Each structure stands twice: as C-alpha cells, then as structure tokens.
Amino acid sequence: MYGDGSVYFSTSKQKWIYDFIDGEGKRRRKTCSTERDAKALKKELRSQKNDIKLFGNRLPTVGEWVLEFLNTYQKPKLRATSFNRQRQSAAKISAIAGISLDKLTGTDIQSLYNSYTDSLSSSSIKKIHQLLFAAYKKAIALRMVEYNPMSAVEPVKMITKKIEIFTFSEILRLFRVLRRDRHYKKYHDIFYIALTTGCRIGELLALKSDNIDIRSREIHIEYSKANIKGSSFTKPKTKSGDRLIPIIFNKSLLILSKLENNPGFIFTTSTGTAYSYQNLHKAWLKICELAKTNKTIHVFRHTFCTVALARGIPLLEVSRIAGHADASTTLKMYGHAIPGYNKKIIKMFSKQRADNITKK
C-alpha cells in the first residue's frame, strides 16, 4: 500500500509526515518540519534501501553488517595492516554476530566483553568496541537503525601491562643459540640489530642497502613490511615513523657494513627475498625453546628503549629513535626506566638547609 512511502501534512501534529514500510514489513512514520525535509528523507531512505539489497527484505545481522562496513567503508581508507587488525576484531564477535542489527542490546555487548576478560587483553577488547561503535555510527548515519546500543555500554578500561625486557642471562642464552645452532644462526644478524637499534621487526624486514649510511652511522627507516601474507610494504603511519636511527655499537656497524652491498633487501632468505613474518616467527619460537625463554620478538625493542633511558639518554631522543608520534607514549611505556632523582633532590635540599643553618 505504501510502497516507497508517502509524504503528507498532518493537521493534528502540524508537521510533515513521511509514512513508509521498513525492511521488516512494519509501518513507520518520520516527522519533519518542512515538506522539503520530508521529501529529502524519502530520497535518502530509498537510496539506502538500494544500498542494502544484498541482505534481502530485512535488516542485516550484526555480523553481516560489520563485514559489509569493513569492506565498503573501511578497506578503501585503511592500510593493509590496519584493515587486517579490524578483520581480526570482527572475527571475535561471533557470540552476537547472528543478532539482527536493530535487536542488539547494550547488555549483549557488555556480556561479550565480559566473556573475554580472561582470554583477551584490554586493548584487544577496546579494538572490538571501537569497531562496533564505528559500524553502528555508520548504520545510524544511513538510517538503518534509530538506536545505538553502544551508548549503553561501559567504556573499556585499559589495563597497561608491565613492559617485558630480556634479562642479561636471557640475552646470553639467545645469542648462544643464534651463534651455534646451524638451523638458526642465519637469524643472528637481524636479531642483533633489533636488540641494538630498537627497530621494529617489520622495519628491519623492509631495509634495503640505500637505507644504510655506514659513514654517518645511521639507518633510514622509511618502510615497514606488513604482518600479513605476501610482500606488502607500507610507509610509517606517522611522520615520526620516517626517521634516522643511530648505529650505536661497532659490532652493529660491522654487521651492516657486510650486508650493505646486498642487492635489494638487507635481511633475506637464501633466494634473496625478504623474510616473511610467519617464517621468522616460527623460527623464533624454536630459538626461544632452545634458549629456555618464552618472550616475543618485540621484547628486543622494549629492551633497547628501557636500557637507553636507564643509561640517561634523554626521553625525547629515545622517543625519536623509537619512532613514537608523541613522547608521552614513550614515557607511559618506559618511564619506569628513567633514573630516579630522589637522592639527588634530597642531597640538594639537605645541602641548602645546611648552608642556611651555618649562615645563622
């Protein structure tokens, strides 16, 4: 009867009405101040109806809409790594994926978060929250739903984990394996450079000879290899990610001077292609097993930044070398390593007090 809907003026309400049938066959009315607004709304809803034809004469489920949202609205504007992370977050909403988009409640979402408190980190739960929030925000903008259940959900409380670093003993055991084991000695150089420069592994995998300046003792970071299948190389997310890193240790300089003449990538397989994340990670797990430790590759970076601050390198310099967009990120992660000044302060004020007493 109503088709795409009809626009008329209600004398009782003194408002313009857009009367239509929604995707579930239910009669809906929207009130507008002017006829022009009502017709514009009709045109917009008709357009949106065409946009969701793939779901048939119904609203999509939460799972269907999140995937559509990712592929249609997120993928064109995201880096491959960021899109891949959002896909991983989408895979974790299976408990609510089958619920119709307009039937999901804040309680459903809160229960999902609560179910993950023992198995996922707070940052992973926050990523799920951000994805659902963005998907529902877009659904409301498209007038697919009227209510955003995310508004009833408690914000995810971030719990900052204590940064792990390698102990001196662990470093000795790791590099003993990397020097002596015939299967894993080929990885010695990349892990040594990771330890002594603070570079991310993806940045080292993307290094080419042009990025190494032996005379200036500097490494130019301008690309990173994405942690996905294939050979995807991307620019840093921020300007601070494109940076020059000092080659501090002579052994690092010697390693890089030998590899500088490699055609193409610095760290490669026997065929000359850059190492893949997957193969490097598999090798790392075996190396850790032999070295009797179970920390991640990223701990090399944490160890470098922590030791640099502990040895008195200024916070801003460590932040620059790490490629953090803001020094507050470095302070939050590694501030515990900055040498304490309590003793110096006490000594300074004690001396001042003593000087004042002697003057009296």
Provide a quick synopsis of the model.
47% of the residues lie in helices and 9% in strands.
Features:
360 residues; 8 strands; 14 helices; elongated; mainly alpha
Please, could you describe this protein's structure?
- With 360 residues, the chain is mainly α.
- It contains 14 helices and 8 strands.
- Helix content is 47%, strand content 9%.
- The mean pLDDT is 85.
Which structural category do the helix and sheet elements fall into? mainly alpha
- Measured by DSSP, the beta-strand proportion falls in 5-15%
Across the major sheet, the strand order is 1-2-3
Q: What's the β-strand tally?
A: 8
Q: What percent of the residues sit in helical stretches (DSSP H or I)?
A: 40-55%
What is the fold's blueprint, element by element?
Blueprint: E1 6-10, E2 15-21, E3 27-32, H1 35-51, H2 62-74, H3 80-90, H4 106-115, H5 122-141, H6 168-180, H7 188-197, H8 201-205, E4 212-213, E5 218-221, E6 224-225, E7 233-234, E8 243-246, H9 250-259, H10 277-291, H11 299-310, H12 315-322, H13 327-334, H14 342-359
Antiparallel strand pairs: 1-2, 2-3, 4-5, 5-8, 6-7
